[in-house]
């Protein structure tokens, strides 16, 4: 199987983060630095799971990947605000993150969207039609159904 470009970009980001983690002070390396490495690792994991998942589940893994990408962005921002790593290195990482985000967004848009689920307390997990009027409990449609 071929490796997707977004996975290659995330792998490059992972190597970049590990290399820069080694230059952090000890008190930051084992807290914020390792947390950043774990976030990128989780991002890579979700991308690989999405690659091998059936079409109906791809969007779930891609949404998880988006959340890990956002967490990674926030942790890099903390590194920048505390001036723990040179600004140029953080900007390089942010460029890589922006490219990963664009590719994930394109992948998500091209994948079939997940069916909406209705979470009525008296029903099992069933698909909810796109219009709220068709939902069994239409008055609570927005509160009960994931959009």
Describe it.
With 147 residues, this protein is mostly helical. It has two domains: 5-110, 23S rRNA-intervening sequence (de novo design (two linked rop proteins)); 115-147, no CATH class. The protein is built from five helices and two strands. A two-stranded antiparallel sheet has the order 1-2. It is elongated and about 45 Å long. 20% of the residues are buried.
Blueprint (SSEs and pairs):
Layout: H1 5-21, H2 26-52, H3 55-81, H4 87-110, E1 117-118, E2 126-127, H5 141-144
Antiparallel strand pairs: 1-2
Helix pairs in contact: 1-2, 1-4, 2-3, 3-4
List keywords for this structure.
elongated; single chain; 5 helices; 2 strands; 147 residues; mainly alpha; de novo design (two linked rop proteins); 3% strand; two-stranded antiparallel ribbon
Summarize the structure.
The protein is mainly α. It has five helices and two strands. It is 67% helix and 3% strand.
